[in-house]
Amino acid sequence: MLEVVNLSKVYKKVKAVDQVNFYIEPGEIVGLLGPNGAGKSTTIAMISTLIPPTEGDVLLRNENVIKEPTKLRKILGVVPQEIALYGDLTARENLEFFGSVHKMSKKLLKERIEIVLKQIGLENEHKKLVKHYSGGMKRRLNIGVALLHEPQYLIMDEPTVGIDPQSRNHILETVKQLNQESNTAIIYTSHYMEEVEYLCNRIYIMDKGRIIASGAKEEIKSILSSEKMVVVKFNRHSNVFIQELMDLPLLSNINVKESEINFTVAKDTNLLPTLMTLCEKHKIVLNSFQVEEPTLEDVFLHLTGRALRN
Ligand SMILES: Nc1ncnc2c1ncn2[C@@H]1O[C@H](COP(=O)(O)OP(=O)(O)OP(=O)(O)O)[C@@H](O)[C@H]1O
Ligand SMILES: [Mg+2]
Predict the structure, then answer these.
(1) Residues 76, 193 within the same domain
(2) Run of H or E including 143
């Protein structure tokens, strides 16, 4: 297990990271979600022992690794937010260069480069100079560099910012595959809540240097869901029908569109039987009944009063 305990970083005037605690178990994908300036990259820089914390510890299997980072570096791969590649080298040459720091044999490095080029989908593009790559290809190579030494833990800092949808999907699938096939534990940092929602089981939401919510996806969403939102469609409706619907004690926030009506009800209400009876009475057909989950975006808005992205 990799763990951070009361981690803080204070710059002159800014508390960039403020008493952050979290952990990741082998084989998990954990999301770190937060808006610009939340402190995500600073937290990552401290875990990867690039900057020293003002306070707090980073523990690998209960052993403090801040002063003795060698063990951690062997098993940790970091994909930095800023792309760090040599434009005048090809993909293969970049991988050879960055791979040489891992002190593996030439033969092993060569094998790993072949595997990694396939993983990141650049096996047919490896002869091009990186400066001629698209943004998405550079992002993929940036990930490849972090994978060379087969890390057990991988931290990815906003790996899909500013790229085309195809590269984005490729990256999301690579993350899933790495986790499923190599059991790599991944800390996935993003301010795209739909990516975090797709990839991660457990999530930490960070804002202004602090973790403001954490837990399994469902737990986090349940912060909000004392109510659920329901969307129903009818073949038709009438004013009397709507009036009777509005008079039901369980419903609130009714919003009528053409064939669609949405409203909220208390979470454990079983509304369907009542609704069916009302439909029968008015000879109206209920075409669909859908309960909508709150999104992580809704939770963030609820907790901070702001949207995740501005
Ligand atoms: N070297 C530094 N000196 C002073 N302040 C810093 C430094 N690095 C980061 N900060 C400040 O710390 C806060 C957190 O920054 P950080 O880069 O960790 O946020 P982030 O969550 O990664 O944001 P983004 O989504 O924009 O990448 C910001 O207010 C930032 O201005
Ligand atoms: Mg950042």
Answers:
(1) yes
(2) helix 135-147
